[in-house]
Amino acid sequence: MDGEMAVTMPGVVGVIGGGRMGAGIAQVFAAGGATVSVVESDDSAVAAARQRIADGLAKAAERGKLAEEPEVVLGRVTVFADLARLSPNADLVVEAVPERAEAKVDVLTRAESVVSENTVLASNTSSLSIAELGAALRGPGRFLGMHFFNPVPASKLVEVVTAPATRESVTGLVRGWVRALGKTDVVVRDSPGFATSRLGVLLGLEAIRMLEEGVADAKAIDDAMELGYRHPMGPLRSTDLVGLDVRLAIAEHLHSTLGERFAPPKLLRDKVAAGELGRKSGRGFYDWS
Ligand SMILES: NC(=O)c1ccc[n+]([C@@H]2O[C@H](COP(=O)([O-])OP(=O)(O)OC[C@H]3O[C@@H](n4cnc5c(N)ncnc54)[C@H](O)[C@@H]3O)[C@@H](O)[C@H]2O)c1
């Protein structure tokens, strides 16, 4: 199957939601040569999204990562607030609106009514069920998860999340597009936490429990994984970067779906309640101020 996969860029891409993730997704597809439309919620969000994409392209150019001038790439990007303006000929429409099922179902069903039958629809959700989101669509076979990582331009991985209804041909197309972006796809069956959150959060929670039990201090635990297992970053430092509140929300979701092993430790709850959210608040398991 890999041998037959066409590693080509989609010609026309729609991105719904131009926030941190959506702007990054728009940037990488446009840099790869696609014509990209970004849908935002209102005029001021349109301006902010356009600025985010322009800033991202400027940064990529500075780092020597753009094959063209940033203005040329930006010329392939249009940002607007009316979802009905999405191109009917889009090869792919990917949504990156906030992590609420109703919001995602709303934009996906509206997009489905605008685009052609051949358009692939995708969600960048980090935790919601692809099967449940897809159930709202007339054609769930064309729908899957494309879980990009933050920051999108620098992250190598995209989890391609397939539901039982997802057509194999659609998965194959998307895997080829991910590779055309210079990224690596891993195909994951729709299940809570996919591969990355499920394993990453479990390791983080156990590290927090070890800290609670006084097994070692934070730096010693992180050093153990960085030096002993060659993890690029220890589980506590990584939790600080992701945000303790974000990790807690994912742990609660996985606790309710996968069971006790994901029960959030008291120390994590206490720190979130005290506003110690990690790097963004200046303190988490480390002092970032
Ligand atoms: N931030 C991360 O590290 C990360 C990583 C992987 C996946 N995700 C997922 O990506 C999605 C987006 O996350 P984010 O961090 O970019 O959020 P964000 O808040 O930065 O961006 C969301 C954007 O969607 C826009 N929006 C809201 N409602 C809309 C609508 N009806 N139509 C069009 N645009 C609308 C908002 O104006 C905002 O710009 C979420 O599902 C999140 O779970 C986030």
TrEMBL record:
Domain 3-hydroxyacyl-CoA dehydrogenase NAD binding: 13-190
Annotated InterPro entries: 3-OHacyl-CoA_DH, 3-OHacyl-CoA_DH_NAD-bd, 3HC_DH_C, 6-PGluconate_DH-like_C_sf, NAD(P)-bd_dom_sf
Pfam families tied to this protein: 3HCDH, 3HCDH_N
Residues under site feature: Important for catalytic activity: 147
Boundaries of every 3-hydroxyacyl-CoA dehydrogenase C-terminal domain copy: 193-288
Keywords: Oxidoreductase
One annotated GO molecular function: 3-hydroxybutyryl-CoA dehydrogenase activity
PANTHER family linked: 3-HYDROXYACYL-COA DEHYDROGENASE FAMILY PROTEIN, 3-HYDROXYBUTYRYL-COA DEHYDROGENASE
Family statement drawn from the similarity comment of this UniProt entry: Belongs to the 3-hydroxyacyl-CoA dehydrogenase family.
Entry protein name: 3-hydroxyacyl-CoA dehydrogenase
